User: Fold this.
Amino acid sequence: MELHQNIKPVLNSFILLLVPFLLVSCQNSQTLELEKQHLTQNTTWNGVIIIGGDIFIEPNVTLTIEPGTIIKFKRIDEKSDQNLFDIDSPYYPQAEIIIRGNLIARGTRKKNIVFTSAEIDARPSDWGALNFLGSTDNIIDHAKVLFAYNGVHSHGSAVTITNSEFAKCGVGISFKSEEETPGVPWFGKRSELTITGNIIHSNKGGIGYRNSTGNISYNLIENNKFFGIWPKESVDGRVESNTITENKKGVLLYQTRGLVLTNNNIYDNNDYNISASTAQDFPVDAKNNWFGTINRGKIDEMIFDHKDDTDLGLVTYEPYLQSPVKWENP
Assistant:
């Protein structure tokens, strides 16, 4: 009893000393509300940012987002006057950050950067995307990207995404190249994304890409409603050392050629671990992956390809690994 009585004055003194620091901390935290606008000079965000419309980062302009920053997007629709552009590809009807310059969003393990909905009843597609258009040298590290239409979307851009989480989005990460179009500088360029050490889960789709370079490694891609990874048409780069599990389809193929798929754990997906779509005419090399078993028949049952439909290409999976790939994010 005496010990508690002696401690109480000390605690009271400590709290009194702490109050000024708490007040200073609260005063230093900030909330910034933004409507649609163009960023025409280098800008840094911190604190809480509430976005009510499109933010366009002009070429040669860098937006830097500091660790611990929370960016919340209000729900708008295609009729909103907060859209900067007509609603047509590559723009979204929802509020988005459009990057023609550069985005540097580098959080830390203890202070993630968060991109999310501003709505109490948050749901997928409340906001559009981090939308990269012909932009290079972009970094997203130690971030959480939640409730977007596409968390990251890239046309002809280069983005490095590391140590981050994508959840409750339409598609977590989407990137592609479009046919060359006069007056549209990012069309005709391949996107180049490095996606390493992330958790991509509980989206409608995990990672989808077309006619682009995707170096995808050391990610956990799980519990996505339709697919884990969906490479389309001409792709290069490596899909290596990932765990792809509990998605409807683990790896979905659409006219896929050039795919390097090796040393992954691809198992316990709901329909198929690897599935060729009706347009998959090309063979695919999927050797040296772990499929959750060493039983060849069971592995075969979970791969949909030429053996199931002679119009499709063959997925070659032998030799396959005899045990799971054990890896740590480098």
Observations:
- Residues 30-316 form one domain.
- The two ends are 52 Å apart (CA to CA).
- The CA atoms of residues 86 and 297 lie 52 Å apart.
